[in-house]
Amino acid sequence: MAKAFFRLQKFLRRTQFLLFFLTAAYLMAGSLLLLQRTRLVIQQGSRGTSAHQALLVPDGMAGVGIVDPRMLQNPRPGPRLLVGMDTLQEPALDQQHSPRWLVSRNSELRQLRRRWFHRFISDQEPLQTAGFKVMKHTTEHKGTYMGCFSEDSRERTLKGAVFYDLRKMTVSHCQEACAERAYTYAGLAYGAECYCGNKLPATASKPEECNSECKGEKGSVCGGVNRLSVYRVEELRAGARRRRNVIYRGCFRAPENLTDTFPASLIQPNLTVEMCSEYCSKKEFPLAVLRGRECYCGYPTGRFPLHDSADGQLCAGAQDASSAAQGKYCRVYQTPVQDTRCTDRKFLTTKSKGFVALSSFPGAGNTWARHLIEHATGYYTGSYYFDGALYNKGFKGEKDHWRSRRTICVKTHESGKTEIEMFDSAILLIRNPYKSLVAEFNRKYAGHLGYATDRTWKSKEWPDFVNSYASWWASHVLDWLKYGKRLLIVHYEDLKQSLIPKLREMVEFLNITVTEDRLLCVENNRDGNFKRSGAKQKDFEPFTQEMKDLINRYILTVDEALRGRNFTGLPREYVPR
């Protein structure tokens, strides 16, 4: 018996050792695999910013921005959203401004904390220059390669238009973009930035100093640190001309002294719109103004703001200056050239004393408001989250830590006492919930610029989405009204209709002084890169009557709360009567 017990004890000891060995081997293998797939990257030489640390993430995490909370938890809404979520219910208004049915979404929103996984900054090391002479500039890049040039970021030569794409930038993409906008030269820098213009930079550099590989085209050079790979795109302009957009802005009363108002002019018999537009594009002006045989080029200014258009009939005889209402009116066209008076942006040189939030419900136009604020103030905006798609298109504040205080304000969709009280003040952007829900549903299922399919709209995802998110729209506003220290309420509809007055209010709230011409430039570039093209018409009504009854009750509650705090109520256009 003792012998059998001894054998059993010996076997168990061996088993324990074997299990320990296998466990250790498993952990070591897992650690090696993790180290192989992720590595710490320190980005060096970033212009105007300090070096940042970032971790690579698997492909599946690329482009993670605002993650829908229900994707992180049970796909069915939890009990904290609304009681009895199987059917739409009307809320019980048992409290004045914070009814029980509006429960905070912060338990879910906390999972949206900023992720420092910057896939897009990886592979930033310069290309090896050992044996490097000139990397290929093959015939697939149809323009003529002019060489490598140095460029001062404070005063650029190629400043006609600026584009960013930190994932897919190629030489051809940059060339085509500049050609379509009537520019002669395309310059690439940092592997991901594209600049257009009609003048070559003054200072040439050594060819090997342009050593950054294009983010979207391996083996091709896209400039370097403060270096531009410049191409002449004249060969492309004939083909691109067919795709150029010259937009008729309307008939306007001509300023008293046109030569003082507009910096360039041309007088020519048989002048056409195309001739004037080409001339102004060549001069890098966004406006082409025609009055008879006279062509003027310039920008919207205080003298000529393009706010009060006249009856088009007054310009009907504009081919002859004397017959166009005695030369008092002119036709105005938008050329393909970008207005660059407000495109320069940077981080704050010193940390801001006030910590300002740009808060909104998802789908309420936060990205558009950031575009307007950045171009009006000249400073980047930050974000409580990291959205790779926004960062790739030039919102460089996305990768800056939201507490850095190097940005003019910080985007957030958070609500709740703790999340709100850490900000000193906030711009609270509010939009029609019907429009917001549709916009966020489209973003969730088709990205920033796409549209959800009809099949998705007709699936159970849509009613579940409305159940969950409609209450969040209301609770978000009510929480900021309750806990916000200093608020500026901005209604999306008012900002869209009266852009300059409302934008001026926002800029003054941020303690920034801007010129009228800069605000007019913002108005001239009002859409930005994330405006959906047109409104995709659905052949059915997505909101059922039950949904409308629920949302309308939320609207009335928010409207009452705003007025109770002496703010302007919600726009009458969508408040139920």
Describe the fold and architecture:
Helix content is 32%, strand content 15%. The protein has helices spanning 2-37, 69-72, 106-109, 171-180, 234-240, 258-261, 273-282, 366-377, 388-392, 417-421, 433-446, 454-457, 461-483, 492-497, 499-509, 516-524, 545-564, and strands spanning 40-42, 53-55, 144-150, 161-164, 185-189, 193-197, 213-214, 217-221, 227-232, 247-253, 264-267, 287-291, 294-298, 329-334, 356-360, 382-383, 410-412, 425-430, 487-491. A five-stranded antiparallel sheet has the order 3-9-5-6-4. A hairpin with a 2-residue loop joins β7 (213-214) and β8. α13 (461-483) packs parallel to α17 (545-564) and α15 (499-509) crosses α16. The longest helix has 36 residues, at 2-37. The N and C termini lie far apart (92 Å). Residues 142-234, 245-342 form the WSC domain. It comes from Chloroceryle aenea. GO terms for molecular function: sulfotransferase activity. Belongs to the WSCD family.
Number of beta strands: 19
Strand order of the largest sheet: 3-9-5-6-4
Estimate what percentage of residues fall within beta strands: 15-25%
User: How is the CATH topology of the domain at 356-531 and 543-574 named?
Assistant: Rossmann fold
Radius of gyration, Cα only, in angstroms?
A: 29 Å
CATH architecture designation of the domain at 356-531 and 543-574: 3-Layer(aba) Sandwich
Helix fraction bin = 25-40%
Extract low-pLDDT stretches: 36-134
Question: What would CATH call the homologous superfamily of the domain at 356-531 and 543-574?
Answer: P-loop containing nucleotide triphosphate hydrolases
Question: What is the CATH class designation of the domain at 356-531 and 543-574?
Answer: Alpha Beta
Mean pLDDT equals: 78
Q: Which overall shape is indicated by the principal axes computed on the Cα atoms?
A: globular
Structural class, judged by helices and strands?
alpha+beta
Tell me the major beta sheet.
5 strands, antiparallel
Amino-to-carboxy terminus distance: 92 Å
Instruction: Count up the helices.
Output: 17
